[in-house]
C-alpha cells in the first residue's frame, strides 16, 4: 500500500524562526508535489519536484527531493504569519500525506 | 481563481435524497479527479478520469457515482448517503505529460448529510 507520511502534523512556531517539514513516501517515485491549503479554501500548488536532488525555492519556502531516501523536505526560513496554513505533500498517483498544519506566532 | 469551478459550494441533503456535484475546467486539461477531505482523514483520492475514461476507483461505495461526459466536465452523483459522508469534496484537473502532472483544485463543495 502506498503511504505518504508527513511530520510534524502540527507545528506552532515563532515569526523569524526556521523550520523543516518532512515528507516520507513508501514507493519509488521520481516526482513529488507540495500544496498549501488555507482554512476553508482549496489547495494551491506550491512546488513540483521532478527528479532526485531537485530543489525549488519560492520566497521563504524551499523544497527538496531525495528519491533514494524517498524523502522530501519543505524548509521555512524566517517564518512570517502569512505562511500559516496546512501544507500537503503528494506523490503520483497524487496520494496525499495527512498535511502539516503550520501556525506562525507573532 | 484556478480555472476549476465547482457547484454547488455548499449542499445539505437528507439520507434519502439524490443530488449531484458538478465540476468544470477550462484549462485544456486531460485528467479530472474527485477527492474527499474530512476532519478525520487526509485527502482521499476517490476517482480519476483520464481522457474521459475512469482509470481509478479507490474502493468508493456505490452510493457515489462519477460521470465524465467530456474532458471539461465531471459530476459526482450522490444517493442514499450516510452522515459520515459529510465532508469537503474537491474536484481537480491536470494535464498529464511526461514532465509532470500538477493538479489544480477547485474551491470544493461542502456536503452535509442529515
Descriptive overview:
The complex is a heterodimer of chains A (106) and B (114). By secondary structure, chain A is mostly beta strands. Chain A is 0% helix and 57% strand. Chain A contains no helices and 11 strands. In chain A, strands 2, 4, 5, 9, 10 and 11 form a 6-stranded mixed β-sheet that branches. The model of chain A has no long low-confidence stretch (mean pLDDT 90). With 114 residues, chain B is mainly beta. Helices cover 0% and strands 57% of the residues of chain B. Chain B has strands at 4-7, 10-13, 18-25, 31-37, 44-50, 53-57, 64-70, 73-79, 87-94, 103-105, 109-113. In chain B, strands 2, 4, 5, 6, 9, 10 and 11 form a 7-stranded mixed β-sheet that branches. Chain B has a 4-stranded antiparallel β-sheet with strand order 1-3-8-7, with no helix packed on it. In chain B, a hairpin with an 8-residue loop joins strand 9 (87-94) and strand 10. The radius of gyration of chain B is 13 Å and the shape is globular. The mean pLDDT of chain B is 88. The A-B interface holds A 31, 33, 35, 41-45, 48, 50, 88, 90, 92-99 and B 2, 33, 35, 42-43, 45, 48, 56, 90, 92, 94, 99-108.
Structural class of chain B: mainly beta
Structural class category of chain A: mainly beta
Q: Describe the sheet with the most strands of chain A.
A: 6 strands, mixed
Distance between the termini of chain A: 40 Å
Please report the total strand number of chain B as a whole number.
Answer: 11
Amino acid at each position: 500500500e502506498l503511504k505518504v507520511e508527513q511530520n510534524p502534523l502540527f507545528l506552532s512556531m515563532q515569526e523569524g524562526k526556521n523550520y523543516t517539514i518532512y515528507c516520507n513516501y513508501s514507493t519509488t517515485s521520481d516526482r513529488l508535489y507540495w500544496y498549501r491549503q488555507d482554512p476553508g479554501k482549496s489547495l494551491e500548488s506550491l512546488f513540483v519536484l521532478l527528479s532526485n536532488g531537485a530543489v525549488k525555492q519560492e520566497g521563504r519556502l524551499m523544497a527538496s527531493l531525495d528519491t533514494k531516501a524517498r524523502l522530501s523536505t519543505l524548509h521555512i526560513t524566517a517564518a512570517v504569519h502569512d505562511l500559516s496554513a496546512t501544507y500537503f505533500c503528494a506523490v503520483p498517483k497524487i496520494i496525499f500525506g495527512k498535511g502539516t498544519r503550520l501556525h506562525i506566532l507573532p | 481563481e484556478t480555472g476549476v469551478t465547482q457547484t454547488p459550494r455548499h449542499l445539505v441533503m437528507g439520507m434519502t435524497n439524490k443530488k449531484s456535484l458538478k465540476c468544470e475546467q477550462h484549462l485544456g486539461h486531460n485528467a479530472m479527479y474527485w477527492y474527499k477531505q474530512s476532519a478525520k482523514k487526509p485527502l482521499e483520492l476517490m476517482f480519476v478520469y483520464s481522457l474521459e475514461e475512469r482509470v481509478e476507483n479507490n474502493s468508493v461505495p456505490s452510493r457515489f457515482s462519477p460521470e465524465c461526459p467530456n474532458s471539461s466536465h465531471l459530476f459526482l452523483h450522490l444517493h442514499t448517503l450516510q452522515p459520515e459522508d459529510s465532508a469537503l469534496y474537491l474536484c481537480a484537473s491536470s494535464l498529464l505529460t511526461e514532465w509532470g502532472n500538477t493538479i489544480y483544485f477547485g474551491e470544493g463543495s461542502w456536503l452535509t448529510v442529515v
